């Protein structure tokens, strides 16, 4: 259709523009004596240069972190790396269930050996109140074959001791991996080499970032799920936290003295923005509101007249904004603000 063609053209032009600004990432690169990055060869608007996968260890048996999407070019690159280093994959560790990280599982097991152990945190969900219904990219059969890992579990191979760190927020079961020998961290999509990441539960996500800093006080290198290596991992995480805290303070400041709907908060925090990005901004504000409410800093007040600025028809077409359908019927106010409206019903949506 004409609309389909236009969407393809716009998507292509957007990615082309983005690709001109992204730093170059080699398809294969030895990053340290015990870490080799193999790029997933799946560039795109959401995967940036592509998904980073990492072969970890120094001996015959090595551990692969994430699998890309199983592109044939990636499989060939990985095969060459294994041949050149005279090694094989004993275990695969998965950071989370998004397709660009687990999509290569079937191809890898078929290409190399079906006896490779695959490890991943068990499927989880955030609370129903998030309105989040995103499902795993893994089939039921694949889930049955995957071995469950847990927070603080340790994997040891020659030259590498890997500690599992639960870092939920981007997804409910997201994990990262501490490489003990380097004090480095495989962050998955919790921290990216370019820009900031998306999340499905901001409260949980922020706690995960703080957890990484607490458990790895001398954190050095971050090996991200996308983008180039981050040399100063601690500074990068502090930047992430600072960015979100700054936005949070903006939101708090506008609801200190007045009850506001989400669209009113968006207008005051972001100023005049186009309709094209309004829904995304509203979704971002919604994440902050839920976090602040969990922390007891704000409360929601039932508002029976829904905001006309939030296009619910558009939300229904895009599941990632579904949370807005519920939050659109509330006003928000800081808990330390005296509320003079006593006739409204205060509800807890946490």
What is the CA-atom radius of gyration, in angstroms? 22 Å
Q: Assign an overall shape.
A: elongated
Major sheet details: 7 strands, mixed
Mean pLDDT: 83
Contiguous runs where pLDDT drops below 50 for at least 5 residues: 1-19, 128-132, 338-350
H/E series: HEEEEHEHHEHEEEEEHEHHHEHHEE
Strand order, sheet with most strands: 1-2-3-4-5-6-7
Instruction: Give the fraction of residues assigned to helices.
Output: 25-40%
Q: Let me know the number of strands.
A: 15
How far is it from the N-terminal to the C-terminal residue, by CA?
Answer: 43 Å
Structural class: alpha/beta
What share of the residues does DSSP label as strand, in percent?
Answer: 15-25%
In DSSP terms (H or I, runs of 4 or more residues), the helix count works out at 11
């Amino acid at each position: 259709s004409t609309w389909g063609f236009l969407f393809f053209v716009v998507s292509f032009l957007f990615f082309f523009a983005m690709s001109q600004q992204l730093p170059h990432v080699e398809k294969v690169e030895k990053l340290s004596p015990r870490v080799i990055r193999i790029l997933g060869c799946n560039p795109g608007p959401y995967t940036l240069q592509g998904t980073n996968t990492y072969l970890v260890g120094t001996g015959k048996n090595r551990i692969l972190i994430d699998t890309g999407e199983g592109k044939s070019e990636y499989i060939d690159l990985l095969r060459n790396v294994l041949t050149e280093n005279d090694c094989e994959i004993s275990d695969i560790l998965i950071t989370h269930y998004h397709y660009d990280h687990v999509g290569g599982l079937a191809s890898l097991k078929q290409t190399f050996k079906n006896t490779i152990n695959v490890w991943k945190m068990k499927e989880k969900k955030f609370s129903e109140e998030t309105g989040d219904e995103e499902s795993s990219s893994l089939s039921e059969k694949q889930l049955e074959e995957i071995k469950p890992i847990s927070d603080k579990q340790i994997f040891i191979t020659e030259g590498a001791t890997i500690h599992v760190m639960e870092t939920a927020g981007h997804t409910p079961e997201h994990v990262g991996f501490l490489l003990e020998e380097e004090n480095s961290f495989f962050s998955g999509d919790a921290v990216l080499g370019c820009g900031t990441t998306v999340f499905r539960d901001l409260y949980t996500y922020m706690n995960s970032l703080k957890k990484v800093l607490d458990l790895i006080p001398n954190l050095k290198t971050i090996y991200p799920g996308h983008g180039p290596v981050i040399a100063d991992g601690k500074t990068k995480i502090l930047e992430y936290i600072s960015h979100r805290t700054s936005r949070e303070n903006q939101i708090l400041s506008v609801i200190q003295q007045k009850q506001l709907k989400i669209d009113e908060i968006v207008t005051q925090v972001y100023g005049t923005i186009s309709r094209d990005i309004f829904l995304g901004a509203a979704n971002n504000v919604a994440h902050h509101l839920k976090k602040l409410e969990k922390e007891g800093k704000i409360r929601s007040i039932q508002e029976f007249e829904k905001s006309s600025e939030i296009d619910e028809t558009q939300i229904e077409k895009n599941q990632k904004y579904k949370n807005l359908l519920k939050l659109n019927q509330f006003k928000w106010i800081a808990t330390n603000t005296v509320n003079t409206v006593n006739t409204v019903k205060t509800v807890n949506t946490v």
